[in-house]
Amino acid sequence: MEATPDGAEVLDPFEIRVLAVLAEKEALTPDNYPLSLNALVNGCNQLSSRDPVMALSEEAVAEVLQRLMQRKYVNGITQAGARVTKYEHRMRIKWSLEQDKLAVLTILMLRGLQTAGEIRTRSGRLHDFKSVADVEQALQFLIDKYPPLVSKLPLAPGTKEPRYGQLLGGEEALAREETAASLGGSVSAGGQGSRVGALEQEVQQLRQQVEELTAQFAEFKKQFE
């Protein structure tokens, strides 16, 4: 386990994605929360509201969950009579976060560097911020935590509003993200490649489904021949 000089644990990009998806789905689909492994994998690989887009296998997500449970970021819950273990995040407890602060952190974890205005627009169903000032207040709370969870970045050339980034992956990861965004306009240097890979995977899955349906229909037709 890595740690920063001020003692903060450093999470890798996959750990950050898993935690963020758990927090997102807790707010968006409370009836289906805690999440099964399958639902969590689908959320991690979602093509919308993600930057970068990822294509994680079930095995990879299962390994990430084991690490997060060991470090008390996630709970695994097995209900009586249920065959499937479900998972819930503990960020609210671990960092003493109310929903507005958790919503801001979750959006930064899912979508990379953003302005306060972008966070307000995108946080929608996670928390209804009445104004950008409310978002900035939540951001300042996260910046003032010790160790800090969020950093306010210097104004980029040609911009009027500062961007913010989460620090769960460490300051070096945030610096790389900032450099990649300034060079290519993309939050992740590998973001475009990740998107293409994810789209190719989705097309492959759709083809497989069509082939299976075609085979099933052929079997069905035989009954009437």
From TrEMBL:
SUPFAM superfamilies to which the protein is assigned, alphabetical: Winged helix' DNA-binding domain (SSF46785)
Xref: Pfam families: DUF480
Key words, A-Z: Coiled coil
Coiled coil: 196-223
UniProt name for this protein: DUF480 domain-containing protein
PANTHER family: UPF0502 PROTEIN YCEH (PTHR38768:SF1)
Gene3D superfamilies on file: Winged helix-like DNA-binding domain superfamily/Winged helix DNA-binding domain
Keyword Coiled coil: yes
Keyword NAD assigned: no
Family label: Belongs to the UPF0502 family.
Lineage per the UniProt record: Bacteria, Pseudomonadati, Pseudomonadota, Betaproteobacteria, Burkholderiales
HAMAP family: UPF0502
